[in-house]
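Predict the 3D structure for this chain.
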Amino acid sequence: MLLTRVGLLLAGTVTALLATAAPAVAHGADAPNGTDYRVEVTAVAPDRPQLRVRVIEAGARLELTNTGDEPVEVIGYSGEPYLRVGPDGVYENTRSPATYLNRTIVGDTVLPAEADPAAEPQWRRVDAGSTARWHDQRALWREAGPPAQVRAAPDREHRVRDWVVPLRDAHGPVEIRGTLDWVPPPDAYHWWVVAVLGALAVGALGLLPAASAPGGRALVGVGALLAAGGAAAVLLAVGRVLDAGAAGVGAVLVGLLTGPLWTLLAGLGALAAARWASRRRPGADFVVALAGACLALFAGVTNAAILARAVVPVPWPPTLARLLVALVIAVGAGALAAAALRLHATGRAVAAAPAGAATSGRG
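Done. Predicted structure below.
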């Protein structure tokens, strides 16, 4: 049966993509899909006009840029020099425990023997620019459960704590000051309802006879919706890269290739399939089914946490990010369903044709 072969091919393709995507997902697992803790930088005190500090990756990292002529040091957890950022690049102190603890958001790296905050700093250059990005446990909530005040009233915002990251430059001590707040998460149920209803509406277009004029227009319509879903996926991928600190076209392109690559590829694949469907080319139903499956899985499901988190890893309002994710899931799943229905109907028509011809011959 044609439908069976299509299903097996789709399953094999998705399995292969999952197998190849696993290392990439594991490599980028430190960048969260969202959180309910809002990290904000409130001040650099005393004021240093040459220093720019911001929060990136939904609060998972701090970013410090030094545009001045003198370096500034970020102080580690035991008062030792941890990072040095200046016109000659970014350096990390290999003797600082923070160098190793800050490699992951949970801070669970095993310290090597040379990590000794009391030892003389040994500087290693890690970047030629003047911007450093790092996880900092002082700005994060690292406990498994929420704070007591959040457990008592989880439906309200709470100030968890004020935090300080000490710096030092040629003129003396400096502080990055900020706040850590709990923000109640949204109700993901409503967004899933929107996604499911949207998928059913798109999938219903596959009920129109594929060989009829309305069926042809339905294919073009599914293609147009698939283009919208593909554009939403590309926008999500770009947003995640921008939120990770990328600045400039080159940095964004590099970030896309090393970050949300599968979301990007799923979006581009959906755009290509949409063009194929709009021209009603042979095999368009299969192309749409494959693109829809990849879009729903690699751009929708992988970003589904955005629907249930208050702080999301894009530089736009969270509601817009959730709308994009719901659109991607609805269009991807709906396009897969519509194309599968059309393929099933076509397969039945092809199977029935020889039987009809044989009956006519006997007559």
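The chain is about 50% helix and 20% strand.
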